[in-house]
Design brief:
The structure is a homodimer of 329-residue chains. In chain A, the strands form three sheets. The first copy, chain A, has a six-stranded mixed sheet with strand order 1-2-4-3-5-6, sandwiched between helices. The first copy, chain A, is an alpha/beta fold. Chain A has eight helices and 14 strands. Chain A folds into two domains: 169 residues, Rossmann fold, CATH 3.40.50.10440; 135 residues, Hypothetical Protein Tm841, Chain: A,domain 3. In chain A, α4 packs antiparallel against α5 and α6 packs across α7. The longest helix of chain A is centred in the last third of the chain and has 17 residues. At the A-B interface, α1, α6, α7 and β14 of A face α1, α6, α7 and β14 of B.
């Protein structure tokens, strides 16, 4: 295993130390492994709290800051944060206007965020669960579809709405609307290696790729021979368009790297994807290309399309200032 | 070779198509493979033109836009752009106030930018050459030190100065000052694979890393067994501090990923580097952690330290809006 790490058991702790030192926007509660805003919001703002297993950086701790999250819980690598962590984040983030939990649809995450909401009894909590991955219906860690790339878009859009001062019901309703409008599909060229395991999560022959990969290396739909980018783009675009009509409103496109694929390749893939979408009559309103929801050192990419109405696009364009996503501020 | 690409011979062309589609800030002259600003500056602004071999994205095309470059030439992968390309970029970018060429110190780049300056006879051109890599004195493609990470910091700082309307002599003098104040050192955990070659540029055993690696996979100082992040941090920090006293003024730190190392590891490495710098009495004024000058699919990282005076820090903080670096706009 070749990684820029120390003791494999302490990777999450050590990375949070580095994140805090590297970013003005956040401070870290190291005991609870919660990333908070460096400058907390005043009373009265709905707080957004997310989190999940580590290994998907910049998700979620890298999206804490003005215009996105108020706090994020970092679980061990590919492991749900505990209810205690989520409760600590929820209680600390509440500014009297309630807290929205943003949860990716994995059984452990859903359960632990629910328990945390009960533990934080005096705080009003609403939840939104993302389940945008069209690859498989159930999966290793999931009942129903897995939550992946739409989580990034949701945290940005809903974060901007919370910043504007809307109440918890309004913010939660928007979050559910965004979650319903997004679909994703991913492909892996290589496996990934969990530091504490020390060996690749799955075996993938040198001439094959996994179509429909999960962000923890969960199996997808099928293995196929390594294909040119134009064919990979088809394998991502077609299942999404088959699942949801994306021509009825403009879309926000996220072409996301899995962690080990360089930007040269992500640019190239975006070009192939955009050409297919144009041919299919999909109108691209906004786009984001880079590493936003990763899977450790996996090579590959995922595509997320979100049907976005005018309000969502306006909120997408609003200023954001986090370690992982920043513009207009 | 597993990559998100089509025909390996057309990787640069295809990636430029994707870059242009993915980024509002730029448009691409595909014939000359020059990335221009989508909204050119008005007459009277000094233009910044850079470029080099592809495979280092977001450098350089990803740094075209308000506050950084006016144009960037994309050579083939790890191959200097031709004099004709650079001339086309220079002539198109000139707004009557002259052009600053920002050139990394590789023999082909230096020669071709010089020839381009002669070809663009009617345009006044000044040049700055970056040579910040302390690893080796001469190298496969280099007489003298190699130009690496400081190029990113220079393009940001000098780009902001050009935006303020200073004349060519002032902008060029600042650029040379920045180039003189920066030092870098890199490490590779894996080799990289040039698409047209189809196999790794060099062999690196599973239990070794290359200390002092070049961004094209050129040999560094030595091979050593894979080490913990804290020891890797020492291997990066110590040679830089031995080369230039970094305690005499605050520094801007770039902890840069080589392309295939995930952000989790880069955060962790930054924590180790920052701890060493604090111990050595170095004051960190600003920091940037992520993939900014990459080496295709190489795993590893590099460290750049830049002694920054108040003016450089003010210019660093100024708004920038490029595909690869953006804040305040």
């Amino acid at each position: 295993m070749k990684k820029l790490i120390g003791d494999p058991q302490n990777v999450v702790r050590d990375a949070l130390i580095g994140l805090e030192k590297s970013a003005d926007q956040v401070r870290v509660d190291h005991e609870n492994r919660v990333v908070h805003r460096a400058v907390p919001k005043e009373q009265g703002k709905v707080a957004l709290v997310s989190g999940g297993g580590s290994g998907h950086e910049p998700l979620h701790g890298g999206f804490v800051g003005m215009g996105m999250l108020d706090a994020a819980c970092a679980g061990e690598v590919f492991t749900s944060p505990t209810p205690d962590q989520v409760e600590a984040a929820t209680t600390a983030a509440d500014r009297g206007a309630g807290v929205l939990h943003i949860v990716k649809n994995y059984t452990g995450d859903v359960m632990n965020f629910e328990m945390a909401a009960e533990l934080a009894g005096s705080v009003r909590v609403e939840s939104v669960v993302t389940d945008d991955d069209v690859a498989v219906q159930d999966s290793t860690f999931t009942a129903g579809r897995r939550g992946v790339g739409v989580t990034v878009l949701l945290e940005k859009i809903v974060g901007a709405a919370a910043e504007e001062g809307h109440d918890l019901d309004t913010v939660a309703a928007l979050a559910r609307r965004v979650a319903a409008e997004g679909r994703s599909m991913g492909v892996a060229l290589t496996s990934c290696t969990v530091p504490a395991a020390g060996k690749p999560t799955f075996d993938l022959p040198d001439d094959e790729m996994e179509v429909g990969i999960g962000i923890h290396g969960e199996p997808g739909r099928r293995r196929v021979p390594v294909a040119p980018a134009s064919e990979i783009a088809q394998m991502l675009v077609e299942p999404i368009l088959a699942d949801l009509d994306m021509t009825s409103s403009p879309v926000i496109v996220l072409l996301n790297g899995m962690g080990a694929s360089p930007l040269l390749e992500l640019h190239l893939m975006y070009g192939e994807v955009a050409a297919l979408l144009e041919k299919a009559g999909v109108t691209i309103a906004r786009r984001l290309v880079g590493n936003y929801i990763t899977s450790l050192d996996m090579a590959g990419c995922s595509l997320t399309l979100l049907r976005a109405d005018d309000e969502m696009i306006r909120l997408w364009d609003a200023p954001v200032n986090t370690p992982g996503l920043r513009w207009g501020a």
